[in-house]
Design goal:
Blueprint: E1 4-5, E2 8-13, H1 22-34, H2 77-84, E3 89-94, H3 103-115, E4 122-124, E5 135-138, E6 149-151, E7 164-165, H4 168-178
Parallel strand pairs: 2-3, 2-5, 3-4, 5-6, 6-7
Antiparallel strand pairs: 1-2
């Protein structure tokens, strides 16, 4: 049985790597502050410390005011979320960044301003399996279960046997089939 709320199917999307360019923002800030340059394609593991030139203390910049709100929207994401809303209630399940005092409030404002998410449709938690949904779109293979869809990124290429989408039109088509729309 599909997960619903008030008769609408629940479609969940992750934020970083699905809607927002977290890795690109890290690259931008690290280049400006430290002169270390890397590209999104160089991040081939979930753990950034394997990226050439990356230092663990660079994550401190993620905790600074303005970091979250300065992220770019990934190509096609606004269109994709709008299309998914035709099929059901779209919520964003996003993991907060530990020790970042303004992360949650900036994330909420970013999602509101770029995607028109209402506060009640934003869930900030580390364990996405706790949230009941018909389908989840995420870039972390560890969060994928059942009919969920892995959004293809350089850091999840090692994940085999999962359904993945490289573009929003493919993701929307997949969700349409899964939800029998």
């Amino acid at each position: 049985m599909m997960s619903t709320h008030l008769g609408k199917l629940i479609i969940a999307v992750d934020c970083d790597g699905v809607l927002s360019d977290f890795v690109g923002r890290c690259a931008e800030v690290v280049a400006a502050r430290h002169g270390v340059h890397f590209t999104v394609d160089q991040v081939t593991q979930w753990d950034f410390v394997t990226t050439p030139g990356w230092k663990k203390d660079f994550f401190q910049h993620c905790k600074e005011p303005g970091f979250v709100y300065g992220m770019q929207v990934l190509p096609g994401a606004v269109w994709g979320v709008d299309k998914l809303r035709e099929f059901g209630r779209v919520i964003c399940i996003t993991s907060p960044f530990g020790g970042a005092p303004v992360w949650a409030s900036e994330r909420e404002a970013w999602l509101r301003d770029h995607f028109r998410f209402d506060r009640k449709d934003i869930v900030q938690c580390d364990d996405k399996s706790l949230i009941t949904r018909a389908v989840l779109l995420d870039d972390n293979p560890e969060n994928i279960q059942g009919d969920d869809l892995l959004i293809d990124r350089p850091w999840n290429q090692h994940a085999a046997g999962l359904v993945r989408a490289c573009a929003w039109d493919t993701a929307v088509a997949y969700v349409r089939v899964v939800l029998n729309q």
